[in-house]
Amino acid sequence: MADEKDYYKILGVERTASADEIKRAYKKVAIKYHPDRNPGNKEAEEKFKQAAEAYDVLRDPDKRARYDQFGAEGVNGAGGFGGFGGAQGMDINDIFSAFGDIFGGHGFGGFGGGFGGGRSAQPRQYKGADMRMKVRLTLEEIATGVTKKYKMKKDITCTECGGSGCESGSKPETCSTCHGQGYVMRTQRSMFGMVQTQDVCPDCHGEGTIIKRKCKHCQGTGIVKGEEVVEVSIPAGVGEGMVVNIPRKGNAAMHNGVPGDIQVIIEEAPHPDFIRDETDLIYNLLLSVPQATLGDTIEIPTLTGKARIKIEPGTQPGTALRLRGKGLPVVQGYGHGTGDIVVNISVYIPQELNKDEKKQMEALKDNDNFQPEESVKNKIFKAFRNYFNK
Could you tell me where in the chain the CATH 2.60.260.20 domains are found? Predict the structure, then answer.
């Protein structure tokens, strides 16, 4: 019917109506025939679709000019609104997605969600760039976890405009090209008919707003170069090469967007006493021949102080003693428990002896008790082989 394609009549406005008058009229008609207000009413749904089709044309100056000259076929061709073949082929969700800005993107504010239920596209929100830094930790710091503060050069929020990018006393204005959506719809003819695509708004670059009076301090970006003290918390048990992500502590984002992250790369500082083996700590204890032969009580270091271990008489080189729970914890989320300090026994053989010492050793050389037993020799060889097979 002719009336159905008279877009001005569908919205109840004159052909000379302004853009604001058309927008207000569409909102009024859409509220009247909204599906939430008229559940199951096919006639109301059809009028709702027709109003959306009319507004899609009349809100766009180029489409409106072609419509005024050629009528509905001049803008729809074979595709109709959004490439869906006119009101008959329109999908309610596509109307919600395209025109959610009319109601602030939140439906009708009292009609059970309204436009909010559609596939609404959100205006662009900037994200700050991530940062990477290396943190060198001692085994003592790794054992307990540590929080450190670093002064970092980074993008920070402009203090003059508070990150808005606007000059004092002004604020961003809704983009007139995309009407705050952040995107525009493009219709083009293809072998399948009229096809509609969604592109980032060329004027506001997807933000939905435009800054006309820019802050002179940040040139309208909302960020400036600066320094900031960043607190970095490292959990216990981390290891060389691990990356700990510190969310939203990286570079500030334009126009109060989402700050970037800091990716902390862990480095382990060499320890004077221990070699790390996952959660265990290896300590090499060098005994004298008398200590290994007669036994002794020895004080050794730990990450929290000192501990004493008993050396049994006849302790052989390659023997491993364990101090349970004195190693490193497992990183939270990767298991439970704490490793050990593994004390590896070595025996020091003097390189030079005086005359009396040589005489004493020669007296013991042929003593059967000082000859190595086969079982001990095999035990030492096994420990030696396992060391290289790790």
Answer: 121-166+216-269, 275-388
3-state helix, strand, coil in the chain (%, to 5): 30, 25, 40
Structure tokens at 41: 């009413």
Are 367 and 374 in contact by the 8 Å Cβ rule? The answer is no
Task: Please give the C-alpha separations between residue 77 and each of 51, 80, 130, in angstroms, as whole numbers.
Answer: 18, 6, 47
**What's the pLDDT tens digit per position in 189-247?**
766 667 778 888 999 988 899 999 999 999 999 999 999 999 999 999 999 988 888 99
Distance CA 81, CA 68 (A): 16
pTM > 0.85: yes or no: no
User: d(Cα 48, Cα 87) in Å, to the nearest integer?
Assistant: 9
At residue 95, does pLDDT exceed 60? no
Which of these, 267, 223, 222, lies nearest to 242 by C-alpha position?
267
List, for residues 111-152, the tens digit of each pLDDT value: 333 333 334 456 778 899 999 999 999 999 999 999 999 999
With contact defined as beta carbons under 8 Å apart, do 172 and 209 qualify?
Answer: yes
Domain 3-117 has CATH 2.60.120.600: no
Pick 121-166+216-269's CATH classification: 1.10.150.530, 2.30.30.100, 2.60.260.20, 3.40.640.10. 2.60.260.20
Helix (H) / strand (E) containing 374 = helix 374-388
Domain 275-388 CATH assignment equals 3.30.930.10: no
Output the six-digit token pair for 210: 């435009």
DSSP assignment string, 314-355: TPPTT-EEEETT-S-BPPTTS---B--EEEEEEEE--S---H
pLDDT value at residue 364:
82
CA distance 189 to 196: 9
For the chain, the residue count is 390
As annotated, the residues of the chain forming the CATH 1.10.287.110 domain(s) are 3-117
Q: Which residue has the tokens 């967007």?
A: 257
Determine the Cα–Cα distance for residues 90 and 105; give it in Å rounded to an integer: 20
Contact 154, 160 (CB under 8 A): no
